[in-house]
């Protein structure tokens, strides 16, 4: 993500960070050091780490959506924090499921404390999501709206679980189609971004049509964002993704690979199947996969599809019917998120 | 649990079962077959299993507590169901953490579908807890009370995670004291039983003192229940626990063992330490552990402690200040739960 954007939203990120710290501190337990470690606030020995708030994409989308609908963002910080908590709960469990030793250049929770404790830490983080939403009451948000947020977030969580299910299920399959892939991304990535924008709008507006347009804006944006991430996972550098290994060596069924599996023929198809049936893809086989992807223009295909979702997202933002000036900050973040010119 | 009791509460159990099925069916996803399998409603191939509702101890305690405080139990079934969902979410994750292949004489979810999917299934079950609470609204329960229930349940979940943390942490320690053990059981077992009775009372009464007495009744009952379960795990038969192996072979730090580790001396202490430092305890070593437990009267100690908690539970039930006749069903279930004469 472009650093200028991160800078321009620093006041928001600082507020979300403070809210998150309040929520975790408000529920002391033996798990807190692991929660704080995962959030990047302290190292594994409990020493504070140099402050560097996360990107907080989901909280920022929520706050901007609320602001666009004339809501008061200072009242809804716990909802924005709840979105970051869900995202992180899912990362902690995802790292166990994916056997990932590192995230953001740091050992993952499970690789330090074991899988059993990491399951626990994720569960505790998930519970804090709901305790965060209850804090909305302190800011005068009516109970009915809190229940509404609980409903929206829980529904998105189920979609997240469904996406995660498909992702795992695809690991052992070679017949995953682009459509299968898209079904998975709807849950795994888009659902949480969709609820971020929808909940922000719900906290700012009572207009169901507006809230729904915000939901679709987030959903389309989430699809584009995941496809961009897939492209980075193959053609990006280690620095930009914060991940130690290439998605190819881990045999991830990301869009370019799924596209290639679906559209390759003859020798190429045979070679791809052979490589993707191995335990993992060795360094000297990666070049072969890349060559096949290049021959099939898989990168172009993915970039075009991401662009389509991006434009659909902007169309949904238009469909909110809000003044252009109110749409501007969301347009800007969408733009930056996808590395496009504003 | 005594079968007569199960029979006498059958109408309650049937209603809870129907509510649970509604909740799961209301949120269709690829995970549902695994959720339904874990709940015992179908086998691993999706074929219906002969109906046999679970014991539903927590939902029944909730319903009886609501009834005792003059609440209308037909309105609070989703809350009772939510308690069963939490219990089952924690079992699914617990089975992964404990490496348990069987539960109730059936393969566990992870042993059929793998650990990654089982983490997911647990997460989905956990999400359904909150969607169940939202269904209270359909029965006219005010939003404020729904948020109150969400708060109570989430707080109990954090205690559950804490108890689970301690349980895992104790696995590799030989210096666990009875006090450490009790701290663990407060979270691992008592918290959920306490919120069952407290939430039932909260849904029936506005009197904070009464609700708190119900919470303490559940808490003390939960402590007694866990200690009884520990005794069964060593001296019970396979049929009564539904578990394939003895807690000793799995080196579980249950109360009799923790007591023996803390109170043994000399040769016995050395022998226990030696056995509990092994990977697992072999069949021909189990007799040695049993002998040491018997020499130290560890079973009597545990039975006495369970009895203490049981009488404290009954004292808290008295402290609710309700008529004896209103207390009677709860006294009866407490009695039966702990295999005592009414």
Give me the secondary-structure topology:
The structure is a homodimer.
Chain A: H1 3-8, H2 10-25, H3 32-38, H4 57-68, H5 77-98, E1 102-103, E2 106-107, H6 109-113, H7 115-134, H8 143-170, H9 178-202, H10 208-235, H11 238-241, H12 255-263, H13 266-276, H14 283-295, H15 298-319, H16 324-337
Helix pairs in contact in A: 2-5, 4-5, 4-9, 4-16, 5-7, 5-8, 5-9, 8-9, 9-10, 10-15, 12-15, 15-16
Task: Walk me through the structure.
The structure is a homodimer of 342-residue chains. With 342 residues, chain A is mostly helical. Chain A has 16 helices and 2 strands. Chain A is globular and about 65 Å long. In chain A, α8 runs antiparallel to α9. The interface between A and B is large, with 42 and 42 residues.
Which short descriptors sum up this protein?
homodimer, 342 residues, mainly alpha, Farnesyl Diphosphate Synthase, two-stranded antiparallel sheet, 2 strands
Name of the CATH architecture of chain A: Orthogonal Bundle
Chain pair with largest interface: A-B, 42 and 42 residues
In CATH terms, the superfamily of chain A is Farnesyl Diphosphate Synthase
Shape estimate of chain A: globular
Provide the low-confidence segments of chain A as ranges. none
- How are strands sequenced across the largest beta sheet of chain A? 1-2
Summarize the main sheet of chain A: 2 strands, antiparallel
CATH topology of chain A: Farnesyl Diphosphate Synthase
Q: How many domains of chain A?
A: 1
The helix/strand series of chain A, from N terminus to C terminus, equals HHHHHEEHHHHHHHHHHH
Strand composition percent of chain A: under 5%
**Mean pLDDT across all amino acids of chain A:** 93
Number of helices of chain A: 16
